Amino acid sequence: MTGPTKTSEPPRIRLVFQLERAELPRLYDELARFHKGVKRVGRLRTLAYEGLLVQQGVLKLPGQASSDAPGTLGFDGDGAEVTNGLFEPAIDDRDGP
Fold it and tell me: Cα separation of 27 and 19, whole Å?
């Protein structure tokens, strides 16, 4: 009797985890749309794979600038300027013009 043959394929990865809404509300709500089973697992697989492609720069998000450093994301536009403006001192208009 012969034992199992070794193949060059890597072993399967099996994941079993619990997710509470308080941890990741957006992900929880997205996955809760599907009844447990194949469709929910498929959606999680799609979200994970697409996120990986964006993170590695294979896919680009709207407004995303190209980045020389792998694994980093940059965005075109003045979003940073708007965000930084939130932390500037308040405008005091009580003195009048």
Answer: 9
Question: Could you read off the pLDDT of 7-56 as tens digits, one per residue?
Answer: 789 999 998 989 999 999 999 999 999 998 999 999 999 999 999 998 88
Model confidence, pTM = 0.56
C-alpha of 39 from chain center: 19
Q: Which residues are CB-contacts of 31 (< 8 A; sequence separation ≥ 6)?
A: 19, 40, 43, 44
What is the domain partition of the chain in residue ranges? 25-85
User: CA–CA separation, 95 vs 59, rounded Å?
Assistant: 51
Q: What is the Cα gyration radius of the chain?
A: 23
